[in-house]
């Protein structure tokens, strides 16, 4: 059985965080490719149980400044279209998923989100294997100014927020989240106060809310990520777990 999870790191300031602990707790081994440092992006996920694309401050088509992005988009396309392994894209990773399959991403669009944000589950979330059974609203850590402004035709929209309508999408077995399930409250405390103020947020309020909701955030996103790993660990030939919604495949 494959026991590794491939993680593509796009920015030294946006690492895998607590995903590493959640992966190793399941007896799996994370394999981190630091694409921003020149480590080559694989052409396919062969030999791994899942693919995770992390965040970064660039747009998904910023190929001049981030020359590894074309290879990352091709890896994403190959993996999702071939239904090879499940995919999770976080922040930039979600934007890459949308952009690669024909959606639109705009820089500094709308109002920024920073710190704990309330997310609303949409109707298709009720049958999604990662989200089924969650409350109608859940908290998540956000840190973005760019956002997905148009979904690909085949995408299923799963979650939204007041400032950002496209918070979570799914294409086949590829999920994209605009928020940061990997970020713990400890990381929020390291955010620069001047940046928070520049984005229109009170630094003390952002840190206090992250601390207050820390246990809830941990419980919610460790469980959701655990379901993602459950799908990654399905034996070959078992097919997908049954779920419904546009763009999904349901077991016969």
Automatic annotation (TrEMBL):
Query: Which InterPro entries is this protein grouped with?
Result: ChyE-like, Class_I_gatase-like, GATASE
For this UniProt record, give its keywords in alphabetical order, as a comma-separated list. Glutamine amidotransferase, Transferase
Query: By its UniProt entry, which PROSITE patterns does this protein fall under?
Result: GATASE_TYPE_1
The Gene Ontology CC terms held by the record are: cytosol
What GO molecular function annotation could you give as one example from this UniProt entry? transferase activity
Superkingdom field: Bacteria
Q: Where is the Glutamine amidotransferase domain?
A: 26-185
One Pfam family in the UniProt entry: GATase
Cite the PANTHER family for this sequence: GLUTAMINE AMIDOTRANSFERASE YLR126C-RELATED (PTHR42695)
Task: Tell me what this protein is called.
Answer: GMP synthase-like glutamine amidotransferase
Species annotation: Kribbella amoyensis
